[in-house]
Amino acid sequence: MADPMYLAYHDEEWGRPVKGDDAVFERVSLEAFQSGLSWLTILRKRENFRAAFDRFSIPKVAAYTEADVERLLADAGIIRNRAKIEAVIGNARAALDLPGGLSELVWRHADPGAPVPRTMADVPAVTPGSKALAKELKRHGFRFVGPTTAYALMQAIGLVNDHLEGCVARSR
């Protein structure tokens, strides 16, 4: 049986549209931290991440200093990976410079016409859209945003709907 926290995330959040620069920044950041780990690990630490990163306020995180990096590295409530922490801070700085904002940039890559997956085998890990999104984010200075991470973001915030055909959450 799946963890109740994971089930609630699947049924109530995953695949639902998320817009707004700070909200999208949070998801970009959490997907970066998830790289190489279980999503459930991130879900269990999500409130700690929110507290540690000032609720993912882009201007606040962009202003972080080396002292903040050290503070975050000492925080047992989050994933203490220097490269990922520094990437989140750098990504906040890059997000500040985006014309139109992060949400607008990411949502340009929405693919509402993506085929409905019938089985898990039909769900891709990478798509042309995720490659394009990753490339554009990297062009603007973002890190930890490869095509697989970009596709996970696209799934999580509703740019594609990868709930399987017949899934109760598909039509919500």
From TrEMBL:
| BP terms from Gene Ontology | base-excision repair
Q: Which domain of life is it from?
A: Bacteria
Pfam families found in the cross-reference section? Adenine_glyco (PF03352)
Record-level Gene Ontology MF annotations: DNA-3-methyladenine glycosylase activity; metal ion binding
Q: Which of this chain's residues are annotated to bind Zn(2+)?
A: H10, H163, C167
Q: Does the keyword Metal-binding apply?
A: yes
The answer to whether UniProt assigns keyword Cell cycle to this entry is: no
Keywords (A to Z) from UniProt = Metal-binding, Zinc
- NCBIfam families, per database record: tag
Task: Report what the protein is called.
Answer: 3-methyladenine DNA glycosylase
This chain's source organism reads [Actinomadura] parvosata subsp. kistnae
